[in-house]
Amino acid sequence: MVFRDRLGPRPDHLLELRFGSRSGRAPGHPLRGSPHGTPTFGSESTGFGRRSTPAPAVRPKGPGDSYSPGPFTCHTQGRSPGGPPGTTSVTAARRKVETVHEIRWISLAGLANLRDVGGLPTLDGAMIAPGRLLRSDNLQDLPADTQARLVDDLGVTDVIDLRTYVEIAREGSGPFVGHERVRTSHFTLYADDTGQRGIPQLPDGPDDAPTDPELPWVVKDRKAQAAGRPAFADPEVDHDTRWSGHYLDYLRERPDSVVGALRTISMAEGAVLVHCAAGKDRTGTIVGLALAAAGAQPEAIARDYAATAERLEAVLARLRTSPAYAAQLAGQSLAQQTPRAETMRTMLQALQRRYGGALGWLGQHGWTASDTAALHAKLRS
After folding, report:
1. Which pLDDT score is estimated for 251?
2. Which residues contact 273 (CB under 8 A, 6 or more apart)?
3. Low-confidence ranges of the chain (pLDDT < 70)
């Protein structure tokens, strides 16, 4: 199944898949470094440049199963430091951050919810750099030309897959696993995920009939109701309280995965693409936490989170064609699934009250000052 882009022409403010000047590129991107536009990342001993001294793993096994490429050379067309006509330079964008930042949608066939979080204003008056961190819905069945554009035009070197092991078993591991120029790292955010390590095979039931393991959020909801708590979709529960609590549960249940995902962002050579199924909840939580730790303004983080509402109908239409999600989405309304800025505000405010902010929570789970410095170097202009 291929979901073709039906979202219409790209708006004028959309990045032209170039992201402007060299100053706006991710550290290690081909436009930084070699004047000939043909730099080589990494070495045969490390596979990726800065990974010769990686941050210590949160735990030796479990989340973060990675697929590391060997050395490669990325060829680019030569261009002037100011970038080609029509692109947005970081210097020009910086003058906008005092007001409202633009949502940087990127329209590519097979993806309904792809955007660059660059341009978000920070608390100290700077901005999150374009071309460093992308977010999207799942990457299943991407056309070959979209895969090429993600790597060649957008400079993606790392994919963070936040789907559960059960989803991967049902849907597949994704198009970039084993790619020679892209590393895929997997981090599950559910304690009720399958206990199998790595990418599991669906178990066989009686008479060799395949039996799918349950999706972890279905298991979690059933346990909650058995304990006398309301069902997740109970209409009596406030929308923002329900969803923000769900996101805080990710942090409570899998702090190892959360810290691992943020470290992967900070150490990536080029652009990082974070995705789950819809690119809304798990992706919104990890991207929101990374942006908060990098000093982005909370209101800008909330606005970026809520932007998925603009594409939600297309996202849900795509997921409803998938056997892994169709049954669960049956009967659910658009309003139940729509992200609202208040949900992210509520989550960030809870972290502020309980831990002094995102960095306070991270610090209680092994995050260090060096990690913060690396994340700032990655995401800040």
Report:
1. 97
2. 134, 135, 136, 139, 150, 156, 158, 159, 160
3. 1-100, 192-213, 215-221, 223-225, 230-237
Question: Measured between alpha carbons, how far is 305 from 323 in angstroms, rounded to an integer?
Answer: 26
Which among 352, 332, 312, 320 has a CA at the least distance from the CA of 221? 332
CA-CA-CA-CA torsion sign (191, 193, 195, 197): negative
How many domains are there within the chain? Answer: 1
> CATH code at 331?
3.90.190.10
Structural domain range at position 313: 22-379
User: pLDDT at position 365, please?
Assistant: 98
Q: What is the pLDDT of residue 115?
A: 98
pTM of the entire predicted model: 0.69
Instruction: Report if residue 9 sits inside a domain.
Output: no
Tokens found for residue 364? 């209680």
In a domain, 15, yes or no: no
Q: Are strands 156-161 and 133-136 parallel, antiparallel or unpaired?
A: unpaired
4 lies in a domain? no
Contact 188, 165 (CB under 8 A): yes
Angle at 20 between CA 16 and CA 23, to 5 degrees: 150
- The answer to whether the CB of 48 falls within 8 A of the CB of 269 is yes
Q: Evaluate whether residue 259 is within a structural domain.
A: yes
3-state secondary structure of 134: strand
